[in-house]
Amino acid sequence: MKNIIIKICVLLGLSYNVSSCNKSLELDPTSVITNASFWKSEDDAKGGLTALYVKQRALANLNLFVWGEARSEVMEWSKVSGTLDYDRYYLNTLNRTSAGPSWQSVYSAINDANLILKYVPNISFSNEQDKKNILAQAYVSRAFLYFVLLRTWGDVPIRTEPVEGASPEVIQRKRAPQTEVVALIKKDIEDASSLFANNSFLKSRNYWSRAGAQALKADVYLWSGKRLNGGQADLAEAIKACEEVEKADISLLPNFADLYKYTNKNNKEVIMAIGNRELEIGNNYFFNMYSAKSPTDVDPQTGEIIGQTAGGMVWTVTELVKNQFKTQDKRRDASFMEIPSTTFYPTLILKGRGTLISGVRYYTSDFVIYRLADVLLMKAEAKNALNQDPSAEMNLIRQRAFGQDYEVNKFVSTTKEQNDALILQERLLELVFEGKRWWDLVRFNKAFDKVPTLLGKESQKHLEYFPLSEQVLSLEPLVEQTEGY
Question: pTM value?
Answer without folding.
Answer: 0.91
